[in-house]
Amino acid sequence: MDITYNGNTSFFIKGKKASIALNPTQDMPKADVALLSKEGADVKAGWVVDWPGEYEISEVLIHAISVPHGESKTTIFQFEIDEVKFLYLPDLDHVLGDEEIQQVGDADVVLLPVGGNGGLDAKTAAKVYEEIEPKMVIPMQHSEGGYGPVADFLKEVGKTGLEAKGVLEVDKSKLPMDSTEFHLLKVA
Questions:
Q1: Of the N and C termini of the chain, which has fewer Cβ atoms inside 10 Å?
Q2: CATH number assigned to the domain comprising residue 13
Q3: Total domain count for the chain?
Q4: Does 116 score more than 80 pLDDT?
Q5: CB-based contacts of 42, cutoff 8 Å, min separation 6
């Protein structure tokens, strides 16, 4: 599958049988499924998930979980496409509690906010990564080009010198077994 980053918390994932738009922007292509951390946005998608619950749409298994965000709530998602388990944490602003960790389960790939400004700062993002122990981390809500908040996060986890990619290809059979890969994506 291919993953494209559209800035802030927006991604487009094109799998073998389905496409998923995560907090999509207006210029993204139409997806089979859109996952929204806040309800009510007008998006181009066959199905929209913006409410907590468990769903199966276009052969994509989705678990949407409501979590605190300041004085309100946001929705985070655990979903599986092409046998790869993702954890998408848009707008997360705290270390996950034990109950939240149980709800999200394990993940192969974590889409992790690292930019501060109401979300996770570098140190807190590193703690969330350590809690989950995924096979792959893709930072979001950051300054493009490896500077600013993303550089602080990468330094915090001991990964420096990463070059940003335009599109990331992910294949379950090529994920590491005993380590974590970090990938920085350019805004499309």
A1: C
A2: 3.60.15.10
A3: 1
A4: no
A5: none
Does residue 122 contact residue 153 with C-beta atoms inside 8 Å?
A: yes
C-alpha separations of 73 from 12, 48, 59, 61, 178 in Å: 23, 18, 28, 22, 34
11-14 and 109-113 beta bridge pairing? unpaired
Q: Which residues contact 9 (CB under 8 A, 6 or more apart)?
A: 22, 23, 37, 90, 91, 113, 140, 141
**181's tokens:** 């890969």
Within 10 angstroms of residue 97's Cβ, the number of other Cβ atoms is 12
| Beta carbons within 8 Å of 185's beta carbon, 6+ residues apart | 3, 4, 5, 138, 164, 165, 166, 167, 168
Residue 128 and residue 92 in contact, taking contact as beta carbons nearer than 8 Å: yes
- At 145 the pLDDT is 46
* Residue 188, domain member (yes or no): no
